[in-house]
Amino acid sequence: MNLAPDSLVLWQWGGFKVNLTLAMTWAVMALLSIGAWLITRRLGDGPQLSRWQNLLEVLVHGMGEQIRELSRHEPGPYLPFVGTLFIFVASCSLLSVLPGFVPPTASLSTATALALCVFVAVPLFGIADQGLGAYLRRYLRPNLLMLPFNIIGELSRTISLAVRLYGNMMSGTVIVAILLGFMPFFVPVLMRLLGLLTGMIQAYIFAVLAMVYIASALSAHAPAPGRDSG
Amino acid sequence: MDNISLIGMVSIITAGLTISIGSIGPALGEARAVAQALASIAQQPDEAGTISRTLFVGLAMIESTAIYCFVVTMILIFANPFWDHVIAQAGR
User: Fold this and answer.
1) Residue A229 and residue A76 in contact, taking contact as beta carbons nearer than 8 Å
2) What is the pLDDT of residues A116-168, one digit of tens each?
3) Domains contained in chain B, CATH given
4) Are the CB atoms for A223 and A201 separated by under 8 Å?
5) H helix or E strand, kind and range, residue A12
6) pTM of the predicted model, to two decimals?
7) Residue among A4, A174, A208 minimizing CB distance to B57
8) What is this model's ipTM?
9) Cβ-Cβ contacts under 8 Å, B60 against chain A
10) Domain boundaries in chain A?
11) Minimal CA–CA distance to A90: which of A185, A206, A177?
């Protein structure tokens, strides 16, 4: 029973190991990249769009609107990062219906890697928006004594992001594996359905929390229109 | 009682207690959050989108504690280092 896709090594060359997590991550990356390239090869702008282009436009526009509502900033700089987080985690969850596929997010390594990306992105976006001095001064709010607590807060947010995603995805796969042992066919299917639902919700939560953390590092109001935000 | 039985017993009992006690708090917290969100939607139906989104984010944060307890339980049952240690010693 695969509690840890990290431990199943598929191929080894010297010190470089390809375990199941890595292979599944590459498979999802290839699927998303090739799918996106195929759909956006010939973009149309008339009233007749291909349904795949329609799907992508709905996704991108919807995520942009959510980001705009959450952060009260234009979604431009943040949409690629947050959107990729959402699409990656959602695809990992959806693809778990395929037999033989173990979602790479069910491994603590992948969840930690994604949380570390958010941990690095928050100061990057904050400094790009407000400048280094203003961003560092935020850690001294409301007064100097809060500095260690603000730093601990940042670290604990990252850890909780990683463990939340890992715990939810791992529990989905483990429950189905256990139930297959003693109550086959009907009950595992129900738990698989629940796992799909929680997977999509966790993808949404991960992206929304990433955006909320980024928005907390930005200035309170969006820059006035006319200023170049590219 | 030898080491193997002791470690096995304590691990299983602790695992059961961890997940059962650990789910009580988050369940109560989430119930309060959802009740409050429903009351807010009833008061201001056109803000339902914002309220729902904030509710989901809040529920995810509350759920985290239950997830931590679940991860500890899984570790105790399936990836227990003390169990592996005594099994390896007994096999020697």
Assistant:
1) yes
2) 999 999 999 999 988 888 888 888 877 888 888 888 988 998 999 999 999 98
3) 23-86 (1.20.20.10)
4) no
5) strand A9-13
6) 0.85
7) A208
8) 0.77
9) 164, 201-202, 205, 209
10) 5-40+50-217
11) A206
